[in-house]
Automatic annotation (TrEMBL):
It is found in: Membrane. This is Translocating chain-associated membrane protein. Belongs to the TRAM family. The chain crosses the membrane at residues 29-52, 80-99, 120-138, 158-177, 189-206, 212-232, 244-266, 286-305. Residues 114-318 form the TLC domain. The lineage of its organism: Eukaryota, Metazoa, Chordata, Craniata, Vertebrata. One of its GO terms (cellular component) is endoplasmic reticulum membrane.
Length: 366
């Protein structure tokens, strides 16, 4: 896409020109930001885009060394923008050097080609995010609300959220760069906006522990779905992955609802820090808790509704295929019996009198 060499170049700054060369343009912009580190005048502005901001040194114990923790702030917008550019470049690299080569071998239709590209990109992202998120995964439920507000986080967690927000924001211009079909744009816009709202909300409201715990199993389920769809496009007989995905999908929805109710309904109301304070990063009030819980529950209900409709559609298609196969198979009919010829034997032998000469007939008559 962005790095492919074309024989015929479209007019400069036209839509086709931007689509074909968007990765090169974004690469130049990222290089300009990186070159800013070389000059003292621009270095302080370039660092704001590249490195994670709001570093805080905290001493946990006198015997232990100081720990570097991070908070969030307005400068994170610049960091998100830079890694959004990096996401666009990586998207073009995966598309050009991996997915396009596989598409040429499979010879897929336009509809399957678009879905294959979507699943290929998302499968790579979900796999990377799942492995990364497992490193910060907590196994104790009370850890989700203990000590709230969680205003400080380690570098790994903050950088994880920066990359997550940057990736899902980069997916919006990719709808234009990848020439996504009009009928597919609303569906993709729905889940892109849901990811941006939920991940940003967990980051801003200092609920990054809960957000990380909910994202890891969700990404595992989505990884299984898109990997199964990739195998299905290569061979339509490979459908066992969808059965496992359907089972894990329901379990992930129940797990999400359970942890959300425990956190917002039982954990946070019992913590010591109650109240609303922007300066302290404390949002532990009933209105915000119920709003967050309602948003999560409505999202899970919407996902289950789409899941049930998808399963019903597949079941109807399967039943129609089975019914059409039964109609095509008809019972064997017996062949009709052949009647014997008149005035002769059953084998249709011609009479010998028809072959006699006139003299022979007279002699026979006399």
């Amino acid at each position: 896409m962005g790095f492919r060499k074309k024989n015929k170049s479209p007019p400069v700054l036209s839509h086709e020109f931007v689509i074909q060369n968007h990765a090169d343009m974004v690469s130049c912009l990222a290089m300009i930001i990186l070159l800013g580190l070389m000059f003292e005048v621009t270095a302080k502005f370039a660092i704001m885009f590249i490195t994670v901001q709001y570093n805080v040194t905290q001493v946990l114990d006198e015997k232990q060394e100081a720990v570097n923790l991070y908070q969030y702030g307005p400068k994170d917008v610049a960091t998100v923008f830079f890694y959004l550019l990096i996401a666009v470049i990586l998207h073009a690299l995966i598309q050009e050097y991996v997915l396009d080569k596989i598409n040429r071998r499979l010879h897929l239709s336009k509809t399957k080609h678009s879905k294959f590209n979507e699943s290929g990109q998302l499968a790579a992202f979900y796999l990377f995010s799942f492995i990364w998120g497992c490193r910060g995964f907590c196994h104790k439920p009370y850890f989700l609300w203990e000590g709230y507000p969680h205003t400080r986080m380690v570098f790994q967690v903050k950088f994880f959220y920066i990359c997550q927000i940057a990736y899902w924001l980069h997916a919006l211009p990719e709808l234009y760069f990848q020439k996504v079909r009009k009928e597919d744009i609303p569906r993709q816009l729905y889940y892109i906006c849901l990811y941006v709202v939920h991940i940003t909300g967990a980051y801003v409201l200092n609920l990054h522990r809960l957000g990380l715990v909910l994202l890891v199993p969700h990404y595992l389920v989505e990884l299984l779905f898109h990997a199964s769809r990739l195998f299905y496009f290569s061979d339509e007989n490979k459908q066992k992955g969808f059965t496992l995905w359907a089972l894990l999908f329901v379990i992930a929805r129940l797990l999400t609802l359970t942890l959300s109710v425990l956190t917002f309904g039982f954990g946070l109301p019992r913590t010591e820090n109650q109240g609303f304070s922007l300066a302290d990063g404390n949002f532990n009030v009933l209105t915000i808790r119920m709003t967050c819980l309602a948003a999560i529950c409505l999202t899970q209900a919407w996902m289950m509704w789409k899941f049930i409709n998808f399963q019903l559609k597949k079941w109807r298609e399967h039943s129609q295929n089975q019914a059409s196969k039964k109609k095509t198979v008809s019972p064997k009919t017996k062949p009709p019996k052949r009647e014997p010829t008149r005035g002769g034997s059953a084998n249709g032998v011609v009479k010998s009198d028809d072959k006699m000469s006139p003299r022979a007939r007279k002699a026979k008559a006399s």
